[in-house]
Amino acid sequence: MSVTTALFYVFSVVLLFAAFRVITAKNPVHSALFLVLTFFQASMIWMLLQAEFLSIALVLVYVGAVMVLFLFVVMMMDINVENLRTGFWKHFPLAAVVGIVIAAEMAAVLLVGFQDLPVAAAADAAKTPNTKALGILLFTRYVYPLEVAAAILLVAMIAAVALTLRARKDSKYVSPGDQVRAQARDRMTVVKLAPTQAEPEAVAPSAPEGKP
Known about the structure:
- The structure is a single chain.
- This protein is 72% helix and 0% strand.
- It contains ten helices and no strands.
- The radius of gyration is 34 Å and the shape is elongated.
- The chain starts with a helix and ends in a 25-residue tail after the last helix.
């Protein structure tokens, strides 16, 4: 067994364990951290396959941006863990069957695809940098699926903003249009006051009764 094969098995075992802990950990923060570990292990496997661009992109995009934002959101929200885990074992058999079917389909597609790959095409692909090959495939053969995926992501982003943008009674709303149209003379009123005021006249004290 070579060193590359041994490292592949090590990374794969850690990846499977971390992925299992993502769905079994009771604390959402721990699940997010295990997901970060899963991404790191997948990045290492891609590095072993000499896909440096995909490996670095996975770490920078998902671990460095998406998961950090997700951790901030999870830690700031008051999530009731007990309600999230209600009915877990009730739906577990159906979820397990669906997961097994998806894994079998992916394995069948990947195995058939690797077996039908010509040796000459694989040798030519090895000579081309993976970043250049990925760009050529995305913007030539898969340009329409790429545009469809971009449109779907745009719709999902707008939908997420629309779902979270709701009126709250305890929040103070200021119209941006009113702020733009506001002028200095409308924001402050200058009141002219006299520099000095006359002192009130002193009232003489009244004499006590019976005394002149």
